[in-house]
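We store chain and fold; example below:
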Amino acid sequence: MPWQSPVARSIVDAIPSLVYIKEFDGTFAYVNRAVGDLFGVEPADIIGRTVMDILDPHDAEVATFGDEQAMQYGKYEFEFTINDRLFLDQKSVLSSEGRMRIVGIATDITELRLMEREIQDMRRIDSLGKLAQGVIHDFRHITSIIRGHVRFIERDLAPDDGEERRSYGRLEESFSAIRAALAEGDEMIDGLMDFSRMRKEVTSALSFNQVIRELTSLLRFPTIEVTLDLGEDTTVRASREQLRQVLMNLAFNARDAMPQGGRLRISTFVRDNMACLAVRDTGHGIPADLVGEVLKPYVTTKPRGQGTGLGLPTVCAIVEKAGGDVSVASEEGVYTEVTVALPVIRSVRDPK
């Protein structure tokens, strides 16, 4: 059988995803090394067995349902959990040697989902921060008007020179209550200002290429080919977590632009003493009239309800705070490339 040849087996065994072939009765005809490692057995020990033999009843039922859907529709995709790891399982029906079999590839997407949730949380916080800034402006304007009129009234009620100060009873109590409310308002404004500011991240001298290489290794998109092209390495002063946020924002935007799959190219290079990161996708591109607008808050090319329009503005805020800049190039229906540039401290190969 073709998949049993030494060359084919060595190639498939090198794939970190779970690769398997099943007969229509549910028995495994082939599994790669990753499947055996997941269950702590040799791949040969799984051949001829079914999911009922190696999974708990609930997981086995989910897997069996996926097989049935693949047999009915020709392909099926679903997510399942084993050993606290989340996998995306993609099944297809294949005709080989006059027989119909199910071919599946299950990819570990645990880190991917965690990063997606982190980015969603960051975007929500950023959106709330921008909302808070608007509230601060309006609320401070209101309190300043109230405070000003209180002072006018106090001035008008003040006794003339040589006269004793009169007591205004409940009016004095009202002034006291207003002053207390204004003080609470000031505290609220201070809290909103703290919230709306970007978090102070610890920065350090980082190897630009090393950070990008490590972060890119976490990107796993089943239908997207990710390539890494590293140029001359440099040292930048930045927050590792914020660099991660920048790359993940750009990578997930690129993924969303390629729902049917495509190619994602991540490259680094040096230009005008700036360390540059370029993220290029082969997705639907950006309309020409929006290319210059997408870096602004709440501008998005995604369908209504599917994008906040805060991903690229968040990237801009991080990069500009580090002394860099962001640019966008795109051709509708062909590609989009976002380039981030950060000041170079020194070249890694420069001993100075």
